[in-house]
Automatic annotation (TrEMBL):
Phylogenetic lineage: Bacteria, Bacillati, Actinomycetota, Actinomycetes, Streptosporangiales
Start and end residues of each DUF397 domain: 11-64
Organism of this sequence: Actinomadura darangshiensis
Protein name per the record: DUF397 domain-containing protein
InterPro entries: DUF397
Domain of life, per lineage: Bacteria
Length: 71
């Protein structure tokens, strides 16, 4: 889904988050930006971490491969 309003961020919650989860990550990909932003859903006005699209792609590839699984 694209950003419905130019300049406004559209945040998406992780699909791994539970309905009442307290450890949720949200991600935004501004249309006119080369950055992917992440934030803690419990603190939407708090800081966001920014990553290049290449960094985000590398991270997601490793996560899908299971590189960060705890078990």
């Amino acid at each position: 889904m694209s950003d419905p309003t130019p300049g406004r961020l559209y945040w998406r919650k992780s699909s791994r988050s539970t309905e009442h989860g307290t450890n949720c990550v949200e991600v935004a990909a501004p249309v006119m930006s080369k950055r992917i932003l992440t934030r803690d859903s419990k603190d939407p006005s708090g800081p966001a971490l920014g990553f290049t699209r290449a960094e985000w792609s590398a991270f997601m590839g490793e996560a899908k491969r299971g590189a960060f699984d705890l078990a």
